[in-house]
Amino acid sequence: MASNHVTKAIEQFFFKGGATRALFRWLDFRLFVSQKNNKLIPSSENRSHSATEYLQAWQQQMSLTTPATGILRLLAVIAVLIGFTAMAGVLNVSQPSFINIWVPLALFAFLPLLLTLSSFYFSFLSPAKHNLHHHPLLHWLINKLNLQQFIPYKNLLLPWLLWQLQSAAILFSTSALLAFFILATFQDYLFGWSSTLITDSATMTQLMTAISWPWHWLLEAPTAELIQQTRFSAQASDLTVSATNVWWMTLVMAIVVYGILPRLLLALLLRQQFIRQLRSNIQNSSDVEQFIVAQQHQVSRNPIQSDDHHVESGTVSLPSTETALISWQQPDIHFNVEKNLGSDDWLQDEQWLNSAASQFDKPVWIIIDPMQTPTGELADCIELLQQNNELISLVLYPINADDSRYQQQQKSWQFFAQRHAVTLKEGHAHV
Questions:
Q1: Quick one: pLDDT at residue 192?
Q2: Is the pTM of this model over 0.70?
Q3: Which residue numbers in the chain have pLDDT < 50?
Q4: Phi, psi for residue 215 in degrees, rounded to 5
Q5: What residue ranges are annotated as transmembrane (predicted)?
């Protein structure tokens, strides 16, 4: 492996311009390396280049993907408009009568908090967090942003999309709060409370004390006297007091504490998770090594050494009735296999990998053409297979040990197997 200094330089190359640019620069690079012919146009300079120089040459010769960011900007504008108009509607729909405090609390504090908690669950805790079938909105966004080619790398793409959605949700709550201050500056709004189910002021006092607890050290909760005086009904809506400033301050604090802060924290967590996964993917991937080897057209000067016990090179006979055989991007293979992955639509492969059909009671061998390049899509397939199967091996077939390119590719597959905790074998046809 390269030194820490070189690894840091490679990471800095991809992170130029921010995390979003880093994501799509890296995904473009991975797609380029996954192609059969990933050699750049030869340079006129006849000398050895550093890793970053090769990467810079790649960037100059390639057309990098730019997501349709106009869709994200439009989504942000829509969130701002909805937040502003929703608050304006709540404040003015019942004028000149009094505004029931429960309505803005529900729309701008409690509902956003509930959505934030559900987003946290689906982003961090759900066992199906990487399954696009459970994220129809994200699937729609991928199509609108023209990012379908990056679906195989959804372990990086989905955290980025979730981060963008939370950013838009923050704009919704912030614009609603801004609308309140703008409208309240030029209009006198009176708040009270009314309820069919809450029949006494004591219960309301206890509820408001609990709701206001996070900021009780800064502002007092609505008192029992204020709650009693500001209750109104549809038949009699004349309040005996006009000083209801405690109500609007309680509303503002509730929007900040329950509507904005949790979303802000979740957005920061998603951003941190996304950047951490992206850095790890860049550091642990063999793509840069394969790319440099392809440019030099020689055996790597830093061959990969593996001390992982999961990677045990061995020779096996194909086909095998004692194992479940799965082929990777080899629809014309002459063996009987349980499934050929990587040749059809990725969503169909993912559906099969998540079904009971991918669970076997014997070891699983994935037959790989050694001249292929390890990809993120294959890594995702292995990860899904490992959820239902304990013994998984990669089997290189056909073998041509005398070919110098095979020796280079074998090192790449060794590194790939090491990273994904699977065994690497060489397959020979049984005569």
A1: 83
A2: no
A3: 1-2, 235, 240, 242-243, 298-313, 431
A4: -120, 25
A5: 71-93, 99-124, 160-186, 246-270
